[in-house]
Amino acid sequence: MKFFIDTANLSDIKEAVDLGILDGVTTNPSLMAREGIKGEDAIIQRYKDICDLVEGDVSAEVFSTSFEDIVEEGKKLAKIADNIVVKVPMIKDGVKALKHFSDIGIRTNCTLVFSAGQAILAAKAGATYVSPFIGRIDDTNWDGMALVGQLVEIYANYGIMTEILAASIRNPLHIVRSFELGADVVTCPLKSIMGLLNHPLTDIGLAKFLADAEKTKV
Ligand code: G3P
Fold first, then answer.
1. Domain boundaries defined on the chain
2. 87 is catalytic
3. Span 97-110, pLDDT tens digits
4. For a substitution probing ligand 1, which of 3, 30, 35, 133 has the most ligand atoms within 8 Å of its CB?
5. Which residue in 81, 102, 111, 157 has the fewest CB atoms around it within 10 Å?
6. How much distance in Å is there from the Cα of 18 to the middle of ligand 1?
7. CATH topology assigned to domain 2-215
8. DSSP assignment of the chain, as one string?
């Protein structure tokens, strides 16, 4: 059971590291843009900064869409640090690149996965992680969580080593359900991780304990 944070924001990553439960980081072009990061040098610097903070795997997404360019970009990203995992989109050239990376020992995360068929291709191509996008499936009135269950079953049938990384997580219940179904990893914003802390009975119980603790003072 692994927790990744889905952000390129350094202070959110630090907060999750400080909590002591963080196993890795995922990013994507939208998350980089949200941080106002522009240009290759700045992107590479941000990955270096993230890798300095986190010992676990850090997914760095390629912007390219042709096999040759994905391979070139992925190799460059993989050189940044030993814990970089190259994130590749689920497209035809992406599948070819996943296989190539697998053959040369570069670890990968296959992103933008919305169906079991896509996840089967990713696994066959030797992806290290496969990222089903739960929240975006839910947004279309389909059942994102059903896909997680389906992937867990299919991969277990064949002893597939590709790890199921539940992504596009929008709330704490998505996290709990993903782990309940057997996802290997969940990646989510800091807000969803912190949301796991909340229960009104904890707040009520703590207030009572603190009030009673006052009564024990001499
Ligand atoms: O890891 C993929 C994730 O960042 C997508 O999340 O919320 O944009 O659907 P979202």
1. 2-215
2. yes
3. 999 999 999 999 99
4. 133
5. 157
6. 23
7. TIM Barrel (3.20.20)
8. -EEEEE---HHHHHHHHHHT---EEE--HHHHHHTT--SHHHHHHHHHHHHHH-SSEEEEE----SHHHHHHHHHHHHTT-TTEEEEEESSHHHHHHHHHHHHTT--EEEEEE-SHHHHHHHHHTT-SEEEEBHHHHHHTTS-HHHHHHHHHHHHHHHT---EEEEBS--SHHHHHHHHHHT-SEEEE-HHHHHHTT--HHHHHHHHHHHHHHHHT--
